[in-house]
Design brief:
The protein is built from six helices and five strands; from the N terminus they run H-E-H-H-H-E-E-E-E-H-H. With about 190 residues, it is an alpha+beta fold. About 10% of the residues have low confidence.
Length: about 190
């Protein structure tokens, strides 16, 4: 339709005799969580692009996936720092400001730091939490201080003074998230 924005997802029309691909049988080796995370990352990446940011892939899983797999169980300091690389570096085209973004999908809308983040090395990173209901974000310092994101929180991206996210565009992308993640919503 005219005026509709494309975010890289395409509809596929299957022949009537096709097997049921809507709910394929799941195997224990299917990386469903990784798929949900990638979809959330793509939504956030495009949201920032639509709001006038350059978005650069930065996370180890995207930049060097084979190294990411090799370091998965290595607990040396450098290995941990590499594994914790934020997903993106974003740069405002308005003023040149740079930010680290770490994107997390949470079906239940909850996110807070646990022991895995005790040595998180990127102290100026923003965490963007995508749920089936909305997108919220919080800075590392607040998360480290014990704050967290809940479904009823109001940590909207459009309210963060460091960012210039148009509330109408954010609402559009939250609608995309509802459509994409509706089947993953936890009660």
């Amino acid at each position: 339709m005219m005026g509709e924005r494309s975010i890289g997802f395409e509809a596929v029309v299957l022949p009537k005799n096709s097997p049921n691909l809507t709910n394929p049988p799941m195997t224990s080796s299917f990386p469903l969580n990784a798929l949900k995370g990638r979809m959330a990352e793509h939504l956030v990446q495009d949201l920032f692009i639509q709001n006038g940011y350059n978005v650069f892939n930065f996370g180890l899983e995207r930049v060097m996936p084979s190294l990411s797999k090799l370091l998965k169980t290595n607990n040396q300091k450098t290995s941990k720092e590499l594994r914790f690389m934020p997903d993106f570096v974003v740069q405002s085209m308005q003023n040149g400001d740079l930010f680290y973004l770490e994107v997390k999908f949470r079906a239940d809308g909850f996110f807070s730091f646990d022991e895995r983040y005790a040595d998180y090395p990127y102290h100026n990173a923003w965490f963007v939490i995508v749920s089936p209901e909305k997108m919220q974000c919080m800075h590392y310092k607040r998360l480290k201080a014990g704050y967290g994101i809940r479904p009823d929180s109001k940590y909207e991206l459009s309210r963060v003074k460091s960012f210039h996210i148009d509330p109408a565009v954010l609402a559009e992308y939250e609608d995309y998230a509802r459509q994409v993640f509706a089947g993953f919503k936890k009660a």
